[in-house]
Amino acid sequence: MKARVTVTLKPGVLDPQGAAIAQALGGLGFTGVQGVRQGKLIEIDLAEGDAATARAEVEAMCEKLLANTVIETYAVEIA
Q1: Closest by alpha carbon to 15, among 76, 75, 56, 72?
Q2: What is the mean pLDDT of the chain?
Q3: Fewer beta carbons below 10 Å: N end or C end of the chain?
Q4: With 0-12 CB in 10 A as exposed, 13-18 as middle and 19+ as buried, what is 37?
Q5: In sequence order, which residues have a C-beta less than 8 Å from that of residue 25 and are 6 or more positions away?
Q6: pLDDT tens digits, residue range 58-72?
Q7: Domains of the chain
Q8: Closest alpha carbon to 36 in 46, 25, 47
Q9: How many other C-beta atoms can be found within 10 angstroms of the C-beta atom of residue 62?
Q10: Distances from the Cα of 9 to the Cαs of 2, 46, 50, 66, 74, in angstroms?
Q11: Per UniProt, which keywords does this protein have (predicted)?
């Protein structure tokens, strides 16, 4: 089973990397970009066969390691 975790900064948290990307895109001529927020995508291969158990396990991984829940949110997809 595969899991996909998307981690992004919470609204209101400053995103200097997103601001740098937005500025670089403007410099490359993409003038319509009004803002950029960047995050990370983590793909995990799991031995677990039950989707509910896999989701619970991945959510525990996020809470303990993959996301800084003080400033980040995460979304889990199980495939």
Answers
A1: 72
A2: 97
A3: C
A4: middle
A5: 33, 36
A6: 999 999 999 999 999
A7: 2-78 (3.30.1280.10)
A8: 25
A9: 20
A10: 23, 26, 29, 13, 9
A11: ATP-binding, Cytoplasm, Ligase, Nucleotide-binding, Purine biosynthesis
